[in-house]
Amino acid sequence: MIDDSKPIFMQIAELIENDIISGVLAEEAQVPSTNEFAAFYRINPATAAKGINRLVEDGLLYKKRGIGMFVTQGAPQRLRGARREKFQQQFIAPLTAEASKLGIGVDELVAMIKTGSDT
């Protein structure tokens, strides 16, 4: 799953985020350790730690001293909200701007989206 498209620590953070959003990692669930990530993906433990620490800084994970990292309460909802906002900025705003330039109204755009989702 690790590729060269972006820094490895960011990919580790995104893997954890995806597991939180999908419910694989529930609130208060323990996250795999940096050593487990390092061994599984054959990366430096410091790189794995950097990805996990990014999520700690974002308030999505917290540390129980001597035990490990855990998913904070409300993390799934916060991640969904952040991703919805990012989705709006990256996809919806440009889509509606282009539709407007082409004279495509809201109803027609919705119909186009529905037709596209049927395939």
UniProtKB/TrEMBL annotation:
Transmembrane segments: none annotated. It comes from the Bacteria. GO terms for molecular function: DNA binding; DNA-binding transcription factor activity. Pfam families: GntR (PF00392). Residues 6-74 form the HTH gntR-type domain. Gene3D superfamilies: Winged helix-like DNA-binding domain superfamily/Winged helix DNA-binding domain. The keyword Zinc does not apply. Keywords: DNA-binding, Transcription, Transcription regulation. This is GntR family transcriptional regulator. It comes from Glutamicibacter halophytocola.
